[in-house]
Specification:
This protein is α/β, with parallel strands linked by helices and 273 residues long. The protein contains eleven helices and eight strands. The radius of gyration is 17 Å and the shape is globular.
Length: 273
């Protein structure tokens, strides 16, 4: 969730290009490296800079593209929001960088990438890391309560409370949430808090979208960390199982905060480098 984490690598220097989505929204992106194009899609509470370290790790074999999803970083936003608009955003980025590409999405960005591939965008291959679909029984009421509370907090301008809701739902301990509120990163989290509703919409009912996955006509790699909770691995396994050309991989020792140097070789093999 740290949008400046990539700056220490000396490669990502900020979004330096713009394209326009179908509804007129300005989208900022950055491209580096040479070779087949790979577009990386960030998850909740993140900007394109968050996945820039992975883009850098892939850039010796691929032309990697990171972008700020609408409402984040240097990209614009247009109301009302709809998941279809975010798919159109990704289509605009693909068009700007050559017309087709491989995709990578982490967390809810993976769920968005799956929707984009199912919609028929020109995607050659798609890899996702721990899309947070809920595979546990009887969670419908809890998910609905989160959506309602999030909508209320954002409607009342309580961005900090919205961030807290999200952090709790991800399982962060209360003391860590208190510490986060007091940290220098908190204003940046509040800045993108409205987009939590976007990621909530992308996740749909929160369950693995088997019918949608069954319509994806390209190879799908679903990856999870060996040190992540069992439910994250099971969700990735079910994604791979539901996709006609799905493959499931576990990266031993990795958590949801996967290390780019561990993930990059797996992605490079899957993308064909």
């Amino acid at each position: 969730m740290n949008p400046t984490s990539s700056l220490s690598r000396g490669i990502f220097t900020g979004m330096d290009k713009k394209t326009i989505s179908r509804d007129g929204t300005s989208l900022a992106y950055h491209r580096t490296g040479q070779g087949p194009v790979v577009v990386l899609v960030s998850g909740a509470m993140s900007t394109g800079a968050t996945v820039a370290p992975l883009a850098a790790a892939l850039s010796d074999r691929f032309s990697t593209v990171v972008y700020d999803r609408r409402g984040r970083g240097e990209s614009g936003d247009t109301m009302p929001y709809a998941v279809e608009r975010e798919v159109e955003d990704l289509a605009a980025v693909l068009d700007a960088v050559g017309g087709d590409a491989a995709l990578y999405g982490i967390s809810s960005g993976g769920a968005l990438a799956l929707r984009a591939a199912a919609s028929g965008l020109p995607v050659r291959r798609l890899a996702v890391y721990e899309p947070p679909f809920d595979v546990r029984e009887g969670r419908e009421q809890e998910r609905a309560a989160y959506s309602d509370a999030l909508t209320s907090a954002l409607a009342q301008g309580r961005r900090g409370d919205a961030v807290e809701l999200f952090l709790r739902v991800t399982g962060l301990a209360e003391q860590m949430i208190v510490s986060a509120r007091e940290s220098p990163m908190w204003p940046g989290l509040e800045a993108v808090a409205p987009t939590l509703a976007y990621d909530d919409a992308v996740m749909g009912d929160g369950l693995v979208p088997r019918d949608l996955l069954a319509s994806i006509g390209v190879p799908v790699l679903a990856v999870a960390g060996g040190a992540s909770p069992d439910r994250m691995r099971e969700a990735a396994r079910q994604v791979a199982q539901a996709a006609p050309e799905g493959t499931y991989r576990v990266l031993e020792g990795q958590t949801h905060a996967v290390e780019p140097e561990m993930l990059a070789p797996v992605l490079a093999e899957f993308y064909g480098a």
